[in-house]
Amino acid sequence: MTLIKYNKKAQQDLEDIYLHILKDKKAAADLFVNKIDKYISLLSNNQKMGKECTKIGLKKDCRVLYYKSYMILYKIYTNHISIKRIINTKQNYK
């Protein structure tokens, strides 16, 4: 099982998502953040679950995993997986 670490931008992305949903309903915000975190935790046993970023037009050395309308950008290292960003697919991410 590989350790998963969120970098500061990904932590901020997750917090922003939570705060956005919180405007409508706290329970929904809690549930969504917990579900996306559980989904990301699947990477610990299946690192290459996502596509290579170059296959979606990003010129970055990373992989991308989709959860609902969010892209989770991550990079695989020898001893851990780093979650780089969690971006709404409606945003201009290129």
Give a description of the structure.
It contains two helices and five strands, in the order βααββββ. The protein has helices at 8-22, 26-41, and strands at residues 3-6, 51-52, 63-67, 70-76, 80-88. The model has no long low-confidence stretch (mean pLDDT 93). The protein has 94 residues and is of the alpha+beta class. Strands 1-5-4-3-2 form a five-stranded mixed sheet. Helices cover 33% and strands 29% of the residues.
Arithmetic mean of pLDDT:
93
- What's the CATH class, please? Alpha Beta
The proportion of residues in beta strands is: 25-35%
Rg, rounded, reads: 13 Å
Straight-line distance between termini: 31 Å
CATH superfamily: RelE-like
Shape field: globular
Q: What is the share of helical residues?
A: 25-40%
Poorly predicted residue ranges: none
CATH topology: YaeB-like fold
Biggest beta sheet attributes: 5 strands, mixed
**Number of helices in the DSSP assignment:** 2
Q: In total, how many beta strands?
A: 5
* SSE topology string: EHHEEEE
Task: Tally the structural domains.
Answer: 1
CATH architecture: 2-Layer Sandwich
Structural class call reads alpha+beta
The neighbouring-strand order within the major sheet is 1-5-4-3-2
